């Protein structure tokens, strides 16, 4: 059975979690993260936030990333706003946002000016296609690395894998629009998680 959100394991993980020391630490941490995010930012975000900084546990990262995925806008920008706001409120959200966008914006503008002169070159086009394959591999590898966190998910491991498989079929094979996938499969997942949380509350009240 998956661990309850109120279990001792969950409380200890939350207690041991580190946090940014200051607004400046938040800004430069997200700047460092952004400057590494060539080709697949998800892999970099997971490594920095969970493994290096330890600002989030694997389970917390999956939950926050899920919210960032369904909100409008770039996923990593949404996540940076959430993490910044969690620790320093509005100032933290703005500092994290500035960190994730400032230097990448300058680099992209410079590269766009350079790329404009060589965009028709077949070698450059081939290189970009190769980068796309690497980006897909980075995302897949990160997904597999985070899969272990599903063992502690409130929905249960089997339900998580079934939902992931159905989502993959719907998006990758059947090409169902994302809005319908979120409304149907996402709604089903939310309903099941709510039911499981209710069961845990009943068990905790009876114990």
Outline the biggest β-sheet: none
- pLDDT averaged residue by residue: 81
> Given the C-alpha coordinates, what overall shape results?
globular
Number of domains: 2
Radius of gyration: 20 Å
Our count of helices gives 8
Describe the model.
By secondary structure, the protein is mostly helical. The protein has two domains: 8-151, no CATH class; 154-207. The chain is built from eight helices and no strands. It has helices at residues 8-16, 23-36, 41-52, 58-70, 75-115, 122-146, 157-173, 178-206. Helix 2 (23-36) packs across helix 5 and helix 7 (157-173) packs antiparallel against helix 8. It is globular. The two termini are 17 Å apart. Residues 1-15 have low confidence and may be disordered.
């Amino acid at each position: 059975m998956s661990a309850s959100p109120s279990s001792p394991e969950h409380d200890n993980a939350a207690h041991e979690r580190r946090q940014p020391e200051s607004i400046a630490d938040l800004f430069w941490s997200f700047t460092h993260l952004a400057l590494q995010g060539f080709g697949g930012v998800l892999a970099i975000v997971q490594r920095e936030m969970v493994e290096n900084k330890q600002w989030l546990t694997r389970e917390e990262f999956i939950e926050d990333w899920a919210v960032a995925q369904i909100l409008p806008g770039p996923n990593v920008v949404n996540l940076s706003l959430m993490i910044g706001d969690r620790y320093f409120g509005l100032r933290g959200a703005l500092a994290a946002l500035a960190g994730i966008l400032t230097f990448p914006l300058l680099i992209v503008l410079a590269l766009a000016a350079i790329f404009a002169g060589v965009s028709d070159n077949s070698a450059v086009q081939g290189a970009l296609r190769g980068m796309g394959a690497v980006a897909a591999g980075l995302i897949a590898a990160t997904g597999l690395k985070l899969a272990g966190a599903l063992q502690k998910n409130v929905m249960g491991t089997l339900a998580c894998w079934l939902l992931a498989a159905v989502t993959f079929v719907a998006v990758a094979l059947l090409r169902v629009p994302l809005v319908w996938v979120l409304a149907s499969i996402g709604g089903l997942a939310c309903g099941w998680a709510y039911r499981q949380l209710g069961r845990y509350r009943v068990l905790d009240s009876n114990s």
